[in-house]
C-alpha cells in the first residue's frame, strides 16, 4: 500500500455518617479488591491524565423525560484536550448502581466525571452513594455553604420567606447540596473545588479522580470548562492541543472502501491514528475520518487517502453536498 507511516452552626461541625453494614457482602468484597490496588487518592489526583469516563445518573434520562447532552459535551471537551474518553454509562438513581460504577471507573480511568443527582430532593442521592462507595462521611463544607448563602436568589413573589438561621425542611434541603464526601486524612482543597467565581456550586473530587458535577447542562458545562486550568498541566501535552480529525468526503459506498480502510487502519495504528467510516443516509456522499494527535502526519496522508476513495478533504461534513448534486 502507500503511507509514510445557630443549629446551623452545630450542623456545620458534625459529619453525617453513611449507612454501612457489618456483614461481609459482595459489595464489601468488591471494596476490598478496590483497596488492594495500592493507588492512593493523592496519587490519582496528581497522575498524568490520558483516559476518562463519564457516568450519567438519572431516572429521567433512562425513561426518556430528559435528553442527555452532558456526555456529548464531555466527549468534545476530552477530544479538544487529547484525553481518550473510554466509557460513557447511563444509570438510574440507585445507590448500588452508583457505588459499583464509580468504584470501577475510579479504578480504571484517570479522570472520571459524574452528572446528575446532587439537588435538594429525595431522589438526589449521588453524594450519599459516592460517599458510601469510598467509605467516607458526608460533611457540610463550610465555604460551599457560605457561598450558597451569599449567591442564592431571594424568594420570588408568592414564595414563603426563608431564614438561613432557622431550622426548617427548606434549610435541610439546601444543606444537603453542600454535604460532600470528605476524607479527613486529605487536603480539603483537593477535595472541593469552586472553578467559577460566580457560582456557589462545588465540584467534589472523591478518591482523587471522581469529579461530581450537576446534571443541569449550563452548570455542567461551565464547571467542566472551569476545571481546565487545573487539568492542563496533567496532560501528556500540557499545551492542550488535543486530538485532530480530518474529514474526507467520498461518493463511494462503504462496501467499496472497506477493504482499503481496513488495511489503512492497520498501517496507521502505530502512529496513533484511528480510521473511521460513516454512512450519511439520504446523502450522495459518505465520510471517512482520520483521527490522531499528530496533525502533520494526518495532513500528509490525507490527500492520498482522498484520492483512493475518489473523494476530497473537507472542513465540515456535508460542505460539498451541493457539488455532489451538480455532478
UniProtKB/TrEMBL annotation:
Xref: PANTHER family: MOLYBDOPTERIN BINDING DOMAIN PROTEIN (AFU_ORTHOLOGUE AFUA_5G11210) (PTHR47675:SF1)
Database matches in SMART domains: MoCF_biosynth
Lineage per the UniProt record: Eukaryota, Fungi, Dikarya, Ascomycota, Pezizomycotina
Name of this protein: MoaB/Mog domain-containing protein
CDD domains (alphabetical): cinA (cd00885)
Residue ranges occupied by any MoaB/Mog domain in the UniProt entry: 53-234
Record-linked Gene3D superfamilies: MoaB/Mog-like domain
Source domain of life: Eukaryota
Molecular function GO labels: FAD diphosphatase activity
Single GO biological process annotation from the record: flavin-containing compound metabolic process
Amino acid at each position: 500500500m502507500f503511507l509514510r507511516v445557630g443549629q446551623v452552626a452545630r450542623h456545620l461541625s458534625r459529619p453525617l455518617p453513611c449507612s454501612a453494614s457489618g456483614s461481609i457482602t459482595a459489595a464489601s468484597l468488591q471494596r476490598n479488591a478496590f483497596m488492594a490496588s495500592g493507588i492512593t487518592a493523592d496519587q490519582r489526583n496528581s497522575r498524568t491524565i490520558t483516559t476518562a469516563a463519564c457516568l450519567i445518573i438519572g431516572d429521567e434520562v433512562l425513561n426518556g423525560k430528559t435528553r442527555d447532552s452532558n456526555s456529548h459535551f464531555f466527549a468534545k471537551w476530552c477530544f479538544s484536550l487529547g484525553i481518550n474518553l473510554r466509557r460513557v454509562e447511563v444509570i438510574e438513581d440507585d445507590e448500588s448502581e452508583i457505588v459499583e460504577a464509580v468504584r470501577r471507573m475510579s479504578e480504571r480511568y484517570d479522570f472520571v466525571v459524574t452528572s446528575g443527582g446532587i439537588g435538594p430532593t429525595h431522589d438526589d442521592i449521588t453524594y450519599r452513594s459516592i460517599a458510601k462507595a469510598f467509605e467516607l462521611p458526608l460533611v457540610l463544607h463550610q465555604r460551599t455553604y457560605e457561598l450558597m448563602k451569599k449567591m442564592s436568589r431571594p424568594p420570588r413573589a408568592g414564595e414563603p420567606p426563608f431564614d438561613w438561621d432557622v431550622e426548617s425542611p427548606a434549610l435541610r434541603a439546601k444543606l444537603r447540596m453542600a454535604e460532600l464526601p470528605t476524607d479527613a486524612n486529605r487536603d480539603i482543597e483537593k477535595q472541593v473545588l469552586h472553578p467559577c467565581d460566580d457560582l456557589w456550586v462545588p465540584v467534589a473530587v472523591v478518591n482523587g479522580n471522581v469529579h461530581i458535577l450537576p446534571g443541569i447542562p449550563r452548570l455542567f458545562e461551565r464547571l467542566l470548562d472551569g476545571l481546565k486550568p487545573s487539568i492542563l498541566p496533567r496532560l501528556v501535552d500540557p499545551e492542550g492541543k488535543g486530538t485532530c480529525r480530518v474529514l474526507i468526503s467520498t461518493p463511494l459506498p462503504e462496501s467499496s472502501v472497506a477493504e482499503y480502510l481496513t488495511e489503512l487502519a492497520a498501517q496507521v495504528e502505530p502512529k496513533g491514528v484511528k480510521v473511521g467510516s460513516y454512512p450519511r443516509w439520504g446523502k450522495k456522499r459518505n465520510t471517512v475520518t482520520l483521527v490522531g494527535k499528530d496533525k502533520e502526519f494526518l495532513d500528509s496522508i490525507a490527500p492520498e487517502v482522498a484520492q483512493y476513495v475518489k473523494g476530497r478533504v473537507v472542513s465540515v461534513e456535508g460542505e460539498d453536498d451541493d457539488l455532489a448534486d451538480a455532478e
